[in-house]
Amino acid sequence: PRLTLNDTGSLAFGSWSSFGDPTDTLMPGQDIPQGNNNSADVTTLRSASGRYRLVNSMALKYFSGADTSGSIYANMSGGGTLLNLTTEGELKLSAGNPPTLIASDKGARDRLRRLTLDDDGNLRLYSLLPTRREWRVVWELVQELCTIQGTCRGNNTICVPKGADGVTCVCPPGFRNRTGAGDGCEAKKSVARAGGKFVRLDFVSFSSGAPKSSSDPGPYMAKQPPSNLQVCEQKCRDDPSCPAFGYKFGGDRTCLLYKTRLVDGYWSPGTEMSTFVRVAEAENDTNPFTGMTSMIDTVCPVQLALPVPPKQKAKTIRNIAIITALFAVELLAGVLSFWAFLRKYSQYREMARTLGLEYLPAGGPRRFSYAELKTATKDFTDVVGRGAYGTVFRGELPDRRAVAVKQLHGVGGGEAEFWAEVTIIARMHHLNLVRMWGFCADKDQRMLVYEYVPNGSLDKYLFSRELAG
C-alpha cells in the first residue's frame, strides 16, 4: 500500500484513513460518522483537551473528570444530525427547519473552510481569508458562551459575558476566590444551621450538572411544586444543605432548591430566573447582579424651597424686599417654564400611562441616553446593516454586553407607534426572537437596543440560492 494525500485532505495508507479517527476538526466533504439508537455514542469531534465532544453528529457533551457519560449542553438545530459540510459554507442536517445552516460568508469563492470543536466547548465554522491569510468565525452553534458547562470550574462561580467573544468568572456577593482544590469560590463567613440571609442575584442560574440540558434538574438541584417566594425561601432555609434557591417570577412560579453545592453558574437575561444565595447575616458586599428595572420619568419634578427669613429689624426691610422680589421673579419663571413643559409633554405622559410604560416589569428594557449609545457604538461607526426604516450599528455596553443598536429614521409623528413597539417587544419572550435590552427616546432620536447575534444577516437564510430553487 501507498501513503496518499487525497484532495479532501485525508491521509490514507491502505485501509487506514486519518479521517477515520475523531479529532477536533472536520473538513468539507469529509465523511461524518453517524450514531444510532442501538449503539453507544459515536464521537464525531473531540476537543483538544478531551473535555468536550460532538456525539452522534448532533449533541455537544461535557465530560468532567472520571465522568464517562457526559452532560449535554447544546444540540444541532431542530434536533437533526450533521450530514455534511460543503465547500460553500453550508452545514447539511438530517432534519430541522431549515435543514441547512448557512455561514455568514456563504457564496464566497475560493475559501478554505473547517468545522472545529474549540477547547471552550463551542462548535465553530471558520473561513480562511485569502488576502489576510487568517481564520475568521463565520458561524457558531452556542451564542451564549456562559451556557457551556465547565466554562467556569469549581463551586460557586458565575460566568459573565465579556463582550461578544469572551467570558469572565466571578464570585457571588459574600464569596471570595479559592486557590487549589479545583479552585472556584468559597464563603467569606460561615453560616449557622438554618441561619443567614439570602441575597438576590437577578438573571443568574446554576445548571447543577444537568445530564440533558441546562433547564433540567441536575444531581445538585431539586425542582419543587409551584409556590410563592416566601414558601420557596422557607424550604431552603429549613434545609441546612441548601446553599441557594432559584425562583422565576411569573405565572409558573418555578421554585428550584439547590443541594450541597452550586456548579456551572451563569448570567443570562434569557433565563428569566433569580437565584437567592445564602450568606452570613453580617455580609454587606456590593451586589452587581441586579435587574434593569427602572421608571420612565415622563415629567421632571420641580422642587421649590423658601429661604429662611432673617430676624426682622428696621435696617433689614430693604433686604427683605429685594429678596422677596427676586424670589417672586424666580418663582414666576419656574412656574411658566413648568407650565410650558407640561403643555409640551403631557401627551407623552398620557401615552405612557395608556401603554403601561410608567413602570416596566423586572428585567424589562432600559432607557438609554443618546450619549450612552453614541459611546457604546464608537460614534456610530460600526455599521452591520441597513434597512428602509433605519441603520443598525454594533456596540458594547459598559457591562461588556455586545448589542445591536437600530437607529430609526423618519419617525416623525409616529410617537404612538414607537412606544407601542417598545411595549410589545419588551413583553415578548421567545427562543427565535432577538431580545430587546433597551431603547432611546432622547429629543428627536429614536433607537432600539437589541442583543447582538453574530451569525450574519437573516437574508442569507431566507433568500439562499438553494431555497430559491
Automatic annotation (TrEMBL):
It catalyses: L-seryl-[protein] + ATP = O-phospho-L-seryl-[protein] + ADP + H(+); L-threonyl-[protein] + ATP = O-phospho-L-threonyl-[protein] + ADP + H(+). It is an enzyme of class 2 (transferase). Residues 378-469 form the Protein kinase domain. It is a single-pass type I membrane protein. Pfam families: PAN_2, PK_Tyr_Ser-Thr, S_locus_glycop. The keyword Transferase applies. PROSITE patterns: PAN (PS50948), PROTEIN_KINASE_ATP (PS00107), PROTEIN_KINASE_DOM (PS50011). Coiled coil: none annotated. ATP binds at residue 406. Keywords: ATP-binding, Disulfide bond, Membrane, Nucleotide-binding, Receptor, Signal, Transferase, Transmembrane, Transmembrane helix. It is found in: Membrane. Its EC number is 2.7.11.1. GO terms for molecular function: ATP binding; protein serine/threonine kinase activity. GO terms for cellular component: membrane. This is non-specific serine/threonine protein kinase.
